[in-house]
Amino acid sequence: MTAFAYRPAPRVRTRPADGGGPPPGEPGPGPAVAPGAPRVRRRRWLALGLLAVWGPGLIVMLADTDAGCMITAAQSGARWGYAMVLPQVALIPVLFMVQEIVVRLGAVTGAGHGRLIREHFGMGWGLVSAGTLVVSSIGALLTELAGVAGVGELFGVSRWITIPVATTFLVALALAGSYRRVERVGIAVGLAELAFLPAMVLAHPHPGQLVRALGTVPLGQSSYVFLLAANVGAVVMPWMIFYQQSAIVDKGLRAEHLRAERRDTAIGAVLTQLIMIVVVVLFAATLFRSGAHPPLDSVGQMAHALGPYIGSVPATTLVGAAVLGGALVAALVVSLAGTWGVADVVGWRHSLNERVGRGNAAFYAAYALVHVVGAVIVLASVNLVALAVDVEVMNALLLPIVLGFLLVLEAKALPPAHRMRGAYRVMATAVCLVVMGFGLYMVPVVLRV
Predict the structure, then answer these.
(1) pTM score, two decimals?
(2) Hey, which CATH number is domain 52-447, 3.40.50.300, 1.20.1740.10, 3.40.50.720, 3.40.50.2000?
(3) Could you tell me if 324 and 162 are in contact, meaning their C-beta atoms sit under 8 angstroms apart?
(4) Are 65 and 326 in contact (CB under 8 A)?
(5) pLDDT class for 384, splitting at 50, 70, 90?
(6) How far is CA 329 from the centre of its chain?
(7) For the CA atoms of the chain, what is the radius of gyration?
């Protein structure tokens, strides 16, 4: 009787020998797995396939938790303690539903948000959307660069060093000729926001008080309603919609990637709100519990206020790292969102997978110019507090326009098979209307009309 020795299945090439494969920026189907491969290898290939698709949702959500949002969360925890945790949990589905519509539009149509507005509503509305987006993006970029300057000054480093370094880093990253590299570096930088986790542990929050506070929603208190509106109105920014849709297109995601990209967006929504919850709990367990009410309008004030409770060095290091990560990833996302939006409307070539050339020089020049102008304004010591108020008002006024376009495009630009249906459509529409309402509510409050 002849004995047959076991021979492992031959390796399957994932790319042709001539170096072919999917175009740059497209994830492709993922590595092939031989039929006899162990289950662990199958799981590994599945994970690699998901990583090839995931990213746009995660990076845009990390950018959503920028320096301004962290300050709002700190104020919420310091003023109302654990009672501000439940609203942060409730905002997870709100954030997901809005951006899930963006995922549908980007993956199914293969077009950026600005281009869809131009194609379905005309060049006039396209220019209006692009113009307002640019103003909002530049304003947001200035606040993020101010956050970077604040972190540097927390460690005794002049803004004349931190701002040029940050600007050079952000411009050089986009010029690297790879969307995936931009995305991966942005996510890695944004994950520094998790530095608030050890700070929260050092604050020793009380689990019992946290659980009991989940049933407390003092809507009769005007200051609570103000902070609630600030959190809801800031949960969706206009630039988030433009960025994620263009990122999906630049990454080459298609309709068959919808499920994976929805998961990417869902995990990003959970992560960004988890960071907000951690900040609320951190300041609830320290300032709220002690009854202290110092001003919390800057990075330095946040770190100094936590010093007596978790130690000066941990407070400075952890708060500085978290805010710096959030500010840098937000600066990257808002600037790309603005230039992508303009390029979509006017018809410039604008893929990050292409190095600078004659065909895309206008896009890269606009991106670099935005950063240079932003750096000059911040270094000129313009009144950034007033600017932050103006940006907040601008975003609130833009929300009804942007979310209105989003809902109409979902009904007009998508084929019937990919449109929202039934109860989910009703819920998503209601969520958009609620966010619009809270955004508009904040306008007279912020302006103190």
Answers:
(1) 0.84
(2) 1.20.1740.10
(3) no
(4) yes
(5) low
(6) 8
(7) 23
